[in-house]
Write the structure tokens for this entry.
Amino acid sequence: MDDLIVARHGESAYSAVGRVNGDPSVAVDLTDRGREEARRLGELLTRDPIELCVTSEFLRARRTADLAVGARDIPRIVAPDLNDIDAGRFEGGDLASMRAWLRQAGPAAPPPGGRESRVGSVRRYVRALRWLVDRPERTILVVAHGLFVTYVMRAAWGDGLPLTLEGTQAGHAEPHRLGRDEAERAAARLDAYVRDPAEHAAPG
């Protein structure tokens, strides 16, 4: 890989109303606005020589990629390591409640009824990034989720990683570009976060 383009999915029926979907078997589609955002993403990527598109398993990510890629003949891979965070008993519930719990419990605790902590999710993202960097395709588009895109970009820039994404989350269907060195740097910094979240957390 030489160039990596990462984008969050378009607005979904849950993100529009502040609900949580961390289970890929729950089909949460894009809103009309989200579909327009996805088409706009495709327009912004018209000149990029994309050789591979990778998404998470979630419907909102796959649908965004469908609309962004359109009729372009670009191979697709679904990578579970890009999946959104496990919400446990917060699945389908209020995002603000999950954020309040996270602020109290910290990044190493899985949500009630869940199997994976915030640290566990980031560990998957490190694995995904390193797999992408080793791919033979020169330009790769990734359509995933707010945590992946926000953490990858902040890590590439050397910024601390916020416990919640309140006020910092990447916008819907906005392309962010990284070169190979930046992607490798992001993977290294995310790996350091996995080992010591407090050391690499954003202030506040």
About this structure: The two ends are 35 Å apart (CA to CA). The longest helix spans residues 118-133.
